[in-house]
Amino acid sequence: MSRSIEAYDLPQRVASYDADMELMHPNRSPMIRVALEVLPFERTASLRALDLGVGTGYFTRCFLERFPSGRVLAVDGASAMVDLARTRLGPLASQVEFRVGDFRSLAELARDTGAIDVVFSSYALHHLGSEDKLAVLRHAVGLLRPRGWLVNADLIVADSPAMEERLQEMRVEGIVTRAAGKDPRFADAVTTRGFLDALQANEDDRPLTLSEDLALLRDAGLRDSAVFWLENREMVSGGRK
After folding, report:
1. What is the pLDDT of residues 152-187, one digit of tens each?
2. Phi, psi for 68 (deg, rounded to 5)
3. Residue 89 maps to which CATH number?
4. 159 DSSP assignment
5. What is the DSSP code (8-state) at residue 110?
6. pLDDT digits (tens, 9 = 90+) for 67-107
7. Count of domains forming the chain
8. Which of 112, 131, 150, 183 could be bridged to 119 by S-S, CB 3.0 to 4.6 A?
């Protein structure tokens, strides 16, 4: 996890993050939309939420646009990301409390937050190993009010190496097509694969299989956990306390 924090605290990585997400993860927008649609709350509700991995503030912005009376505790390990999120949220930043720190120290980071209604996260928890991820999820669920919700939009891996290989081939093909020759990092399949391999190693990615991920949600204390959206290597999952 510390390696991934360092990777996202570099100015060049922060500056290109959202543009890179459009190329590498074009499903981010529909995934966040599904995650928010799942939440069974009135739009006028004064919800308190925890964003695990605020990044550039994309999920927090979408949450506050859907629930204008909401407030968010936004946590991220990279101070450069937090600074960018604060700027990009503009006036909405007044409804957000930012804290910089490692998810594995969530007990300390959220020590005085009180009970919350929603925990949400996107493209962040896959940087944790299964033991650390379970510990973070357990603490996050512990912060939830009864019948509070946790939703997560993130990456998974296939159960079999052969299927994972094919999904990775499809991933590369999609990135090359979307880049359309305008980005030298994604000029062809070879350069794209090399870039992705270096990126994943540098950011210490550790995605789990779908069954492993759902098992962690159950073990963390969620009931009625489910997958709400799934396409290839990406999913939206969650449940209520």
Report:
1. 999 999 999 999 999 999 999 999 999 999 999 999
2. -60, -20
3. 3.40.50.150
4. S
5. T
6. 999 999 999 988 888 988 998 899 999 999 999 999 889 88
7. 2
8. 150
